[in-house]
Amino acid sequence: MRNHSDSMCILIALLIWVAVNVADAWWIYFFVQACVDPNPHTAVNRTHSGFEGYEAMMFIFGFPWGIVNLVVVYWHYSQVTNSGRINSSTCTRMLLVLYSIFIFLPVALALVILPFFGGWIVVPVAQQYAWDHRCDSYPMYAILDAKSYYDARYVTNVAYFYLNPSQEQVFTYEIANPGDADIWTFSLRDWNTDQGAIPLDAYPTLQQVTYDFVDDSLSGNCTVPTSSAAANSTTLTSPCMTGTFDPGNVLSFNITSSVPLNNTLASNTTSAATPSSTSSVLRAQDKGWTFSDDAPSLILRLVNPLHDTLGLIVLRTAVTRPHDSTELKVCLAGVQGGNEVGAQVMAPLGLILMRQADYALYATRPSDDD
């Protein structure tokens, strides 16, 4: 009777041990997901402080639980080796060696190391995959490259734009503060490929966005070439965007724009030269998009003004480059039937680059021990 009772106790303890390890695995999984795919928000990262508490508790619990697993692993291995010594045939010893190397050792390392170090080990691997593939289904993406704490003052914060699926870099924009602390611009810095090779819907005619932080207003100028001949190419610049933005907890934009296509690339130059004015309301899907100790993170969607409901994705942040917190990848969808780098993309992107610049300085500053 006592042996039966002991067996039941061992079985119950084993089931509890398995259940806790499964729960801990899910704990780590949701942590990794919140790190590399934080949008849309889940219960884990609905608030930034809540996520930090979730992370802290995961590591606090993981350390003693790793010790518990170490004790269990040691007990199991001692039982197996003792059994192998009793039945000490050559075949049994060989099977024991193979079991120890190919089954026991990997499982034991996972049980002991992952509860405490799992987040640190898995997140960089998942982050690299997200960096490489998060934007694969989008027509374009941008890499926001902010300067670090150690960069010289003349280094600028820039956004590099790429085409999918070729991953060809096509042009670069930069953030500048022309003297007034409340006025910032996001403007074309350089062409990285022949302008004639850029697809019509990926050609950036909105070449300067101005942000006024006194009244949170926007304005933009469009520049279009008036001739396709490189030798005597001329351009025409004119206002093409106005609007307002709310950089608060729920990022939003209200934009009126008439961004033209590049006439020299369009098959119908008459219709391309006279774009109709459109109004767009954009809003982040979740509350909380910028943080003092983390990179900007959001999904920005069009808003149906009649029903105040979120529609198609305009852009979304991916992840920072692994081991380089100064670079943030952003997937660009644009608006359906419009320019992929029109006002609905470029206006928010400049503001996101400003906040990425703030985070890059924070993340690369020297520690108190340096």
UniProtKB/TrEMBL annotation:
<feature type="transmembrane region" description="Helical">
    <location>
        <begin position="96"/>
        <end position="123"/>
    </location>
</feature>
<keyword id="KW-0472">Membrane</keyword>
<feature type="signal peptide">
    <location>
        <begin position="1"/>
        <end position="25"/>
    </location>
</feature>
<keyword id="KW-0732">Signal</keyword>
<protein>
    <recommendedName>
        <fullName>Transmembrane protein</fullName>
    </recommendedName>
</protein>
<keyword id="KW-1133">Transmembrane helix</keyword>
<keyword id="KW-0812">Transmembrane</keyword>
<feature type="transmembrane region" description="Helical">
    <location>
        <begin position="56"/>
        <end position="75"/>
    </location>
</feature>
